[in-house]
Protein backbone atom coordinates (compact mmCIF):
# COMPACT_ATOMS: atom_id res chain seq x y z
CA UNK A 1 0.00 0.00 0.00
CA UNK A 2 1.00 3.59 -0.52
CA UNK A 3 2.33 5.79 2.27
CA UNK A 4 1.08 9.32 2.85
CA UNK A 5 3.49 11.83 4.36
CA UNK A 6 1.85 14.41 6.62
CA UNK A 7 3.67 17.64 7.50
CA UNK A 8 2.60 18.64 11.00
CA UNK A 9 1.67 16.35 13.87
CA UNK A 10 -1.19 18.15 15.61
CA UNK A 11 -4.78 16.98 15.96
CA UNK A 12 -5.56 17.63 12.32
CA UNK A 13 -2.66 15.40 11.27
CA UNK A 14 -3.86 12.81 13.72
CA UNK A 15 -7.35 12.77 12.25
CA UNK A 16 -5.91 12.59 8.72
CA UNK A 17 -3.76 9.63 9.76
CA UNK A 18 -6.82 7.85 11.17
CA UNK A 19 -8.76 8.42 7.96
CA UNK A 20 -5.81 7.24 5.87
CA UNK A 21 -5.52 4.06 7.93
CA UNK A 22 -9.21 3.31 7.34
CA UNK A 23 -8.56 3.44 3.59
CA UNK A 24 -5.58 1.10 3.90
CA UNK A 25 -2.80 3.67 3.60
CA UNK A 26 0.24 3.98 5.79
CA UNK A 27 1.22 7.39 7.19
CA UNK A 28 4.47 9.06 8.16
CA UNK A 29 4.34 12.26 10.24
CA UNK A 30 6.94 15.02 9.98
CA UNK A 31 6.87 17.18 13.10
CA UNK A 32 9.65 18.80 15.12
CA UNK A 33 7.58 19.29 18.30
CA UNK A 34 4.98 17.28 20.19
CA UNK A 35 2.91 15.15 17.88
CA UNK A 36 -0.51 13.83 18.94
CA UNK A 37 -0.62 12.45 15.39
CA UNK A 38 2.36 10.19 16.02
CA UNK A 39 0.25 8.03 18.36
CA UNK A 40 -1.81 6.81 15.42
CA UNK A 41 0.60 7.07 12.47
CA UNK A 42 3.00 4.36 11.29
CA UNK A 43 6.05 6.53 11.73
CA UNK A 44 7.26 9.88 12.98
CA UNK A 45 10.16 11.87 11.58
CA UNK A 46 10.95 14.13 14.50
CA UNK A 47 13.30 16.70 13.02
CA UNK A 48 13.65 20.41 12.38
CA UNK A 49 11.73 21.78 9.38
CA UNK A 50 14.90 22.44 7.44
CA UNK A 51 16.89 19.32 8.33
CA UNK A 52 17.92 18.25 4.82
CA UNK A 53 18.88 14.71 5.75
CA UNK A 54 15.65 14.07 7.63
CA UNK A 55 13.61 15.56 4.79
CA UNK A 56 15.35 13.34 2.23
CA UNK A 57 14.65 10.25 4.34
CA UNK A 58 11.04 11.33 4.85
CA UNK A 59 10.53 11.93 1.12
CA UNK A 60 12.05 8.54 0.38
CA UNK A 61 9.56 6.82 2.68
CA UNK A 62 6.35 8.35 1.28
CA UNK A 63 4.48 8.46 -2.05
CA UNK A 64 2.71 11.80 -1.65
CA UNK A 65 3.09 14.68 0.79
CA UNK A 66 0.27 16.62 2.39
CA UNK A 67 0.13 18.98 5.37
CA UNK A 68 -2.10 19.84 8.30
CA UNK A 69 -0.38 23.18 8.92
CA UNK A 70 -0.12 25.92 6.30
CA UNK A 71 3.00 27.57 7.69
CA UNK A 72 5.49 24.88 6.70
CA UNK A 73 8.57 26.88 5.57
CA UNK A 74 9.01 27.35 1.82
CA UNK A 75 12.52 25.88 2.08
CA UNK A 76 11.09 22.60 3.43
CA UNK A 77 8.61 22.42 0.60
CA UNK A 78 11.29 23.17 -2.02
CA UNK A 79 13.32 20.21 -0.78
CA UNK A 80 10.34 17.83 -0.75
CA UNK A 81 8.83 19.01 -4.00
CA UNK A 82 11.93 17.97 -5.92
CA UNK A 83 11.10 14.31 -5.30
CA UNK A 84 7.44 13.94 -4.27
CA UNK A 85 4.13 15.58 -5.20
CA UNK A 86 2.83 18.01 -2.59
CA UNK A 87 -0.95 18.16 -2.42
CA UNK A 88 -2.54 20.69 -2.08
CA UNK A 89 0.06 22.44 -4.25
CA UNK A 90 2.31 25.39 -3.64
CA UNK A 91 -0.01 28.04 -5.12
CA UNK A 92 -2.51 27.54 -2.28
CA UNK A 93 0.22 27.64 0.35
CA UNK A 94 1.66 30.85 -1.00
CA UNK A 95 -1.63 32.72 -0.71
CA UNK A 96 -2.60 31.16 2.61
CA UNK A 97 0.76 31.92 4.25
CA UNK A 98 0.44 35.65 3.79
CA UNK A 99 -2.70 37.64 4.59
CA UNK A 100 -1.79 40.38 2.14
CA UNK A 101 -1.31 37.98 -0.80
CA UNK A 102 -4.47 36.16 0.30
CA UNK A 103 -6.60 39.31 0.27
CA UNK A 104 -5.23 40.36 -3.14
CA UNK A 105 -5.81 36.90 -4.59
CA UNK A 106 -9.42 36.82 -3.38
CA UNK A 107 -10.08 40.33 -4.65
CA UNK A 108 -8.57 39.31 -7.98
CA UNK A 109 -11.24 36.61 -8.22
CA UNK A 110 -13.89 39.30 -7.87
CA UNK A 111 -14.77 38.21 -4.32
CA UNK A 112 -15.47 40.64 -1.50
CA UNK A 113 -13.01 40.87 1.39
CA UNK A 114 -12.83 43.26 4.36
CA UNK A 115 -11.34 46.63 3.42
CA UNK A 116 -7.60 46.31 4.02
CA UNK A 117 -4.29 48.16 3.80
CA UNK A 118 -0.70 46.96 3.72
CA UNK A 119 1.01 48.00 6.96
CA UNK A 120 4.80 47.58 6.75
CA UNK A 121 5.54 50.24 9.39
CA UNK A 122 4.02 52.63 11.91
CA UNK A 123 3.65 55.44 9.38
CA UNK A 124 1.61 53.16 7.13
CA UNK A 125 -0.57 52.19 10.10
CA UNK A 126 -1.34 55.82 10.92
CA UNK A 127 -2.28 56.49 7.29
CA UNK A 128 -4.35 53.28 7.05
CA UNK A 129 -6.27 54.16 10.22
CA UNK A 130 -7.10 57.57 8.78
CA UNK A 131 -8.48 55.87 5.66
CA UNK A 132 -10.32 52.88 7.14
CA UNK A 133 -11.37 54.49 10.42
CA UNK A 134 -11.92 52.81 13.78
CA UNK A 135 -12.59 50.22 14.96
CA UNK A 136 -10.15 48.23 12.85
CA UNK A 137 -8.09 45.07 13.30
CA UNK A 138 -4.32 44.92 12.88
CA UNK A 139 -3.19 41.42 11.85
CA UNK A 140 0.30 40.10 11.21
CA UNK A 141 0.68 38.99 7.60
CA UNK A 142 2.16 35.65 8.60
CA UNK A 143 1.82 32.90 11.23
CA UNK A 144 -1.38 34.02 12.98
CA UNK A 145 -3.97 31.51 14.20
CA UNK A 146 -6.69 31.36 16.89
CA UNK A 147 -6.68 35.17 16.92
CA UNK A 148 -2.98 35.33 17.81
CA UNK A 149 -1.00 38.09 16.11
CA UNK A 150 -4.04 40.36 16.02
CA UNK A 151 -5.05 43.48 17.87
CA UNK A 152 -8.29 45.38 17.70
CA UNK A 153 -7.89 49.13 17.47
CA UNK A 154 -10.71 51.06 19.12
CA UNK A 155 -11.04 54.80 19.73
CA UNK A 156 -8.84 54.59 22.80
CA UNK A 157 -6.04 52.53 21.17
CA UNK A 158 -2.97 54.42 20.01
CA UNK A 159 -1.38 53.41 16.70
CA UNK A 160 2.06 53.00 18.28
CA UNK A 161 0.60 50.88 21.07
CA UNK A 162 -1.15 48.59 18.56
CA UNK A 163 1.96 48.27 16.43
CA UNK A 164 3.99 47.39 19.53
CA UNK A 165 1.42 44.71 20.45
CA UNK A 166 2.25 42.79 17.26
CA UNK A 167 5.96 43.50 17.80
CA UNK A 168 6.28 45.59 14.68
CA UNK A 169 5.72 42.61 12.37
CA UNK A 170 4.65 43.11 8.73
CA UNK A 171 0.90 43.45 9.00
CA UNK A 172 -2.34 44.42 7.36
CA UNK A 173 -5.06 46.63 8.77
CA UNK A 174 -8.61 45.39 8.24
CA UNK A 175 -11.83 47.28 8.61
CA UNK A 176 -14.30 45.57 10.97
CA UNK A 177 -17.01 43.77 9.01
CA UNK A 178 -20.51 43.99 10.49
CA UNK A 179 -21.87 40.52 9.92
CA UNK A 180 -25.10 38.68 10.69
CA UNK A 181 -23.24 35.41 11.14
CA UNK A 182 -19.95 33.68 10.46
CA UNK A 183 -20.02 30.60 8.29
CA UNK A 184 -17.53 28.32 6.60
CA UNK A 185 -17.54 26.07 3.61
CA UNK A 186 -15.46 22.92 3.61
CA UNK A 187 -14.75 22.22 -0.05
CA UNK A 188 -12.90 19.29 -1.63
CA UNK A 189 -11.38 19.08 -5.09
CA UNK A 190 -9.96 15.93 -6.64
CA UNK A 191 -7.09 15.44 -9.11
CA UNK A 192 -9.59 15.43 -12.00
CA UNK A 193 -11.07 18.77 -10.90
CA UNK A 194 -14.18 17.14 -9.43
CA UNK A 195 -15.40 19.49 -6.67
CA UNK A 196 -17.78 18.84 -3.76
CA UNK A 197 -18.77 20.95 -0.77
CA UNK A 198 -20.05 20.04 2.65
CA UNK A 199 -23.07 21.97 3.83
CA UNK A 200 -21.94 25.38 5.20
CA UNK A 201 -21.62 25.49 8.99
CA UNK A 202 -22.28 28.44 11.28
CA UNK A 203 -19.36 29.32 13.53
CA UNK A 204 -19.20 31.04 16.89
CA UNK A 205 -15.83 32.30 18.12
CA UNK A 206 -14.78 33.49 21.56
CA UNK A 207 -11.51 35.36 22.04
CA UNK A 208 -10.49 34.51 18.49
CA UNK A 209 -10.93 30.74 18.98
CA UNK A 210 -13.67 28.66 17.39
CA UNK A 211 -16.15 27.51 20.04
CA UNK A 212 -18.97 25.87 18.10
CA UNK A 213 -20.03 25.00 14.58
CA UNK A 214 -23.72 24.40 13.91
CA UNK A 215 -25.26 22.75 10.84
CA UNK A 216 -27.38 23.74 9.13
CA UNK A 217 -26.30 27.38 9.22
CA UNK A 218 -29.19 29.85 9.28
CA UNK A 219 -28.81 30.95 5.66
CA UNK A 220 -31.15 31.70 2.80
CA UNK A 221 -31.04 29.35 -0.18
CA UNK A 222 -29.25 32.00 -2.23
CA UNK A 223 -26.63 32.65 0.49
CA UNK A 224 -25.99 28.92 0.68
CA UNK A 225 -25.60 28.74 -3.08
CA UNK A 226 -23.28 31.79 -3.17
CA UNK A 227 -21.11 30.26 -0.45
CA UNK A 228 -20.71 26.99 -2.29
CA UNK A 229 -20.10 28.65 -5.66
CA UNK A 230 -17.43 31.00 -4.37
CA UNK A 231 -15.62 28.14 -2.62
CA UNK A 232 -15.61 26.30 -5.95
CA UNK A 233 -14.12 29.32 -7.69
CA UNK A 234 -11.32 29.58 -5.15
CA UNK A 235 -10.25 25.94 -5.43
CA UNK A 236 -10.44 25.88 -9.20
CA UNK A 237 -8.39 29.11 -9.52
CA UNK A 238 -5.65 27.41 -7.47
CA UNK A 239 -5.93 24.09 -9.35
CA UNK A 240 -6.33 22.77 -5.83
CA UNK A 241 -6.24 19.12 -4.76
CA UNK A 242 -7.53 18.32 -1.28
CA UNK A 243 -9.85 19.85 1.30
CA UNK A 244 -9.97 23.59 2.01
CA UNK A 245 -11.79 25.58 4.68
CA UNK A 246 -13.24 28.89 3.48
CA UNK A 247 -14.24 31.27 6.31
CA UNK A 248 -16.97 33.75 5.44
CA UNK A 249 -18.94 36.58 6.98
CA UNK A 250 -22.60 36.63 5.95
CA UNK A 251 -23.73 40.25 5.75
CA UNK A 252 -26.89 42.00 4.56
CA UNK A 253 -25.08 42.89 1.34
CA UNK A 254 -23.55 39.52 0.55
CA UNK A 255 -20.75 37.22 1.60
CA UNK A 256 -17.36 38.54 2.62
CA UNK A 257 -14.40 36.13 2.55
CA UNK A 258 -12.43 36.27 5.81
CA UNK A 259 -9.66 33.77 5.10
CA UNK A 260 -8.93 30.41 3.56
CA UNK A 261 -7.18 27.43 5.13
CA UNK A 262 -5.56 25.01 2.65
CA UNK A 263 -6.25 21.96 4.79
CA UNK A 264 -8.93 20.22 6.79
CA UNK A 265 -10.56 22.73 9.10
CA UNK A 266 -11.78 22.80 12.69
CA UNK A 267 -15.21 23.97 11.53
CA UNK A 268 -15.49 20.76 9.48
CA UNK A 269 -15.15 18.36 12.42
CA UNK A 270 -18.93 17.86 12.57
CA UNK A 271 -18.68 15.93 9.27
CA UNK A 272 -17.31 12.85 11.07
CA UNK A 273 -20.62 12.51 12.92
CA UNK A 274 -23.09 13.67 10.27
CA UNK A 275 -21.76 12.55 6.87
CA UNK A 276 -20.99 9.16 5.33
CA UNK A 277 -17.61 10.49 4.21
CA UNK A 278 -16.06 13.13 6.46
CA UNK A 279 -13.60 15.92 5.62
CA UNK A 280 -10.60 13.82 6.65
CA UNK A 281 -11.47 10.91 4.39
CA UNK A 282 -12.36 13.36 1.62
CA UNK A 283 -8.89 14.92 1.89
CA UNK A 284 -7.14 11.54 1.81
CA UNK A 285 -9.24 10.47 -1.18
CA UNK A 286 -8.38 13.69 -3.02
CA UNK A 287 -4.62 13.61 -2.47
CA UNK A 288 -4.45 9.86 -3.19
CA UNK A 289 -6.19 10.38 -6.53
CA UNK A 290 -9.30 8.44 -5.51
CA UNK A 291 -12.85 9.53 -6.42
CA UNK A 292 -14.38 11.86 -3.83
CA UNK A 293 -17.04 10.45 -1.51
CA UNK A 294 -20.59 11.31 -0.59
CA UNK A 295 -20.42 14.31 1.77
CA UNK A 296 -24.17 14.80 2.09
CA UNK A 297 -25.26 15.69 5.60
CA UNK A 298 -27.62 13.12 7.17
CA UNK A 299 -28.20 14.87 10.52
CA UNK A 300 -28.27 18.30 12.12
CA UNK A 301 -25.35 18.78 14.46
CA UNK A 302 -23.49 21.06 16.83
CA UNK A 303 -19.74 20.61 17.17
CA UNK A 304 -18.21 22.06 20.31
CA UNK A 305 -14.47 22.47 20.80
CA UNK A 306 -13.16 21.24 24.13
CA UNK A 307 -10.64 23.86 25.15
CA UNK A 308 -8.57 23.84 28.36
CA UNK A 309 -10.88 23.42 31.38
CA UNK A 310 -13.74 22.19 29.21
CA UNK A 311 -12.15 18.82 29.86
CA UNK A 312 -13.62 18.99 33.39
CA UNK A 313 -16.98 18.31 31.71
CA UNK A 314 -15.82 14.96 30.37
CA UNK A 315 -18.09 12.80 32.57
CA UNK A 316 -21.12 14.80 31.44
CA UNK A 317 -20.06 14.60 27.79
CA UNK A 318 -19.49 10.85 28.04
CA UNK A 319 -23.03 10.49 29.34
CA UNK A 320 -24.63 12.78 26.77
CA UNK A 321 -26.91 11.08 24.28
CA UNK A 322 -26.35 11.50 20.54
CA UNK A 323 -22.85 12.83 21.17
CA UNK A 324 -19.72 11.72 19.39
CA UNK A 325 -16.64 12.53 21.42
CA UNK A 326 -13.20 12.93 19.90
CA UNK A 327 -10.18 13.51 22.15
CA UNK A 328 -6.72 14.26 20.80
CA UNK A 329 -4.64 12.39 23.38
CA UNK A 330 -2.69 15.49 24.46
CA UNK A 331 -0.82 14.81 27.67
CA UNK A 332 -1.23 18.25 29.20
CA UNK A 333 -4.32 20.46 29.48
CA UNK A 334 -3.53 24.17 29.10
CA UNK A 335 -5.78 27.24 28.93
CA UNK A 336 -6.71 27.94 25.31
CA UNK A 337 -5.44 24.53 24.14
CA UNK A 338 -7.75 22.47 21.96
CA UNK A 339 -8.04 19.08 23.70
CA UNK A 340 -10.85 17.52 21.70
CA UNK A 341 -14.31 18.17 20.37
CA UNK A 342 -17.80 16.81 20.87
CA UNK A 343 -20.42 16.66 18.14
CA UNK A 344 -24.03 16.40 19.25
CA UNK A 345 -26.53 15.21 16.68
CA UNK A 346 -29.50 17.51 17.27
CA UNK A 347 -31.86 16.00 14.71
CA UNK A 348 -31.62 12.93 12.52
P1 LIG B 1 -7.98 30.88 12.61
O1 LIG B 1 -7.72 30.14 13.88
O2 LIG B 1 -9.38 30.71 12.08
O3 LIG B 1 -6.93 30.71 11.56
P2 LIG B 1 -7.01 33.62 12.74
O4 LIG B 1 -6.09 33.84 13.89
O5 LIG B 1 -6.43 33.48 11.39
O6 LIG B 1 -7.99 32.41 13.08
P3 LIG B 1 -9.14 35.37 11.83
O7 LIG B 1 -9.94 34.31 11.21
O8 LIG B 1 -8.53 36.41 10.96
O9 LIG B 1 -8.01 34.83 12.81
O10 LIG B 1 -9.99 36.14 12.94
C1 LIG B 1 -10.54 35.44 14.04
C2 LIG B 1 -11.97 35.90 14.26
O11 LIG B 1 -11.98 37.32 14.53
C3 LIG B 1 -12.85 35.74 13.05
O12 LIG B 1 -13.37 34.43 12.95
C4 LIG B 1 -13.92 36.79 13.35
O13 LIG B 1 -14.79 36.35 14.36
C5 LIG B 1 -13.10 37.93 13.91
N1 LIG B 1 -12.64 38.83 12.82
C6 LIG B 1 -11.47 38.74 12.15
N2 LIG B 1 -11.37 39.69 11.21
C7 LIG B 1 -12.51 40.41 11.25
C8 LIG B 1 -13.02 41.54 10.53
N3 LIG B 1 -12.31 42.13 9.56
N4 LIG B 1 -14.25 41.99 10.85
C9 LIG B 1 -14.97 41.40 11.84
N5 LIG B 1 -14.54 40.36 12.56
C10 LIG B 1 -13.34 39.85 12.28
MG1 LIG C 1 -6.35 31.89 10.13
MG1 LIG D 1 -9.96 32.34 10.97
Automatic annotation (TrEMBL):
<dbReference type="GO" id="GO:0005829">
    <property type="term" value="C:cytosol"/>
</dbReference>
<protein>
    <recommendedName>
        <fullName>N5-carboxyaminoimidazole ribonucleotide synthase</fullName>
        <ecNumber>6.3.4.18</ecNumber>
    </recommendedName>
</protein>
<dbReference type="GO" id="GO:0005524">
    <property type="term" value="F:ATP binding"/>
</dbReference>
<dbReference type="InterPro" id="IPR013815">
    <property type="entry name" value="ATP_grasp_subdomain_1"/>
</dbReference>
<dbReference type="InterPro" id="IPR040686">
    <property type="entry name" value="PurK_C"/>
</dbReference>
<dbReference type="Pfam" id="PF02222">
    <property type="entry name" value="ATP-grasp"/>
</dbReference>
<dbReference type="InterPro" id="IPR005875">
    <property type="entry name" value="PurK"/>
</dbReference>
<dbReference type="GO" id="GO:0046872">
    <property type="term" value="F:metal ion binding"/>
</dbReference>
<keyword id="KW-0547">Nucleotide-binding</keyword>
<keyword id="KW-0658">Purine biosynthesis</keyword>
<dbReference type="InterPro" id="IPR003135">
    <property type="entry name" value="ATP-grasp_carboxylate-amine"/>
</dbReference>
<feature type="binding site">
    <location>
        <begin position="144"/>
        <end position="150"/>
    </location>
    <ligand>
        <name>ATP</name>
    </ligand>
</feature>
<dbReference type="InterPro" id="IPR011761">
    <property type="entry name" value="ATP-grasp"/>
</dbReference>
<feature type="binding site">
    <location>
        <position position="99"/>
    </location>
    <ligand>
        <name>ATP</name>
    </ligand>
</feature>
<dbReference type="GO" id="GO:0006189">
    <property type="term" value="P:'de novo' IMP biosynthetic process"/>
</dbReference>
<keyword id="KW-0067">ATP-binding</keyword>
<dbReference type="InterPro" id="IPR054350">
    <property type="entry name" value="PurT/PurK_preATP-grasp"/>
</dbReference>
<feature type="binding site">
    <location>
        <position position="139"/>
    </location>
    <ligand>
        <name>ATP</name>
    </ligand>
</feature>
<dbReference type="Pfam" id="PF17769">
    <property type="entry name" value="PurK_C"/>
</dbReference>
<dbReference type="GO" id="GO:0034028">
    <property type="term" value="F:5-(carboxyamino)imidazole ribonucleotide synthase activity"/>
</dbReference>
<keyword id="KW-0436">Ligase</keyword>
<comment type="pathway">
    <text>Purine metabolism; IMP biosynthesis via de novo pathway; 5-amino-1-(5-phospho-D-ribosyl)imidazole-4-carboxylate from 5-amino-1-(5-phospho-D-ribosyl)imidazole (N5-CAIR route): step 1/2.</text>
</comment>
<comment type="subunit">
    <text>Homodimer.</text>
</comment>
<dbReference type="Pfam" id="PF22660">
    <property type="entry name" value="RS_preATP-grasp-like"/>
</dbReference>
<dbReference type="InterPro" id="IPR011054">
    <property type="entry name" value="Rudment_hybrid_motif"/>
</dbReference>
<comment type="function">
    <text>Catalyzes the ATP-dependent conversion of 5-aminoimidazole ribonucleotide (AIR) and HCO(3)- to N5-carboxyaminoimidazole ribonucleotide (N5-CAIR).</text>
</comment>
<dbReference type="GO" id="GO:0004638">
    <property type="term" value="F:phosphoribosylaminoimidazole carboxylase activity"/>
</dbReference>
<feature type="domain" description="ATP-grasp">
    <location>
        <begin position="103"/>
        <end position="288"/>
    </location>
</feature>
<comment type="similarity">
    <text>Belongs to the PurK/PurT family.</text>
</comment>
<feature type="binding site">
    <location>
        <begin position="174"/>
        <end position="177"/>
    </location>
    <ligand>
        <name>ATP</name>
    </ligand>
</feature>
<feature type="binding site">
    <location>
        <position position="205"/>
    </location>
    <ligand>
        <name>ATP</name>
    </ligand>
</feature>
<feature type="binding site">
    <location>
        <position position="182"/>
    </location>
    <ligand>
        <name>ATP</name>
    </ligand>
</feature>
<comment type="function">
    <text>Catalyzes the ATP-dependent conversion of 5-aminoimidazole ribonucleotide (AIR) and HCO(3)(-) to N5-carboxyaminoimidazole ribonucleotide (N5-CAIR).</text>
</comment>
<feature type="binding site">
    <location>
        <begin position="258"/>
        <end position="259"/>
    </location>
    <ligand>
        <name>ATP</name>
    </ligand>
</feature>
<dbReference type="InterPro" id="IPR016185">
    <property type="entry name" value="PreATP-grasp_dom_sf"/>
</dbReference>
Amino acid sequence: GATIGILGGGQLGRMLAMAAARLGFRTQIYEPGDAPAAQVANGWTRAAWTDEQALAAFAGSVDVVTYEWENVPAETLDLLEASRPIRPGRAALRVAQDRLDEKRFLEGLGLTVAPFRDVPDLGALTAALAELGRPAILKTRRLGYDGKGQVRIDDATGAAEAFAAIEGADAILEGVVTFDREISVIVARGVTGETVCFDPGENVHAEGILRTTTVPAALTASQRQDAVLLAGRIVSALDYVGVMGVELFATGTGLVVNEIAPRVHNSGHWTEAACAVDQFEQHIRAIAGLPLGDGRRHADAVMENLIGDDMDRLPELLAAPDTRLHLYGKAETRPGRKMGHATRLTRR
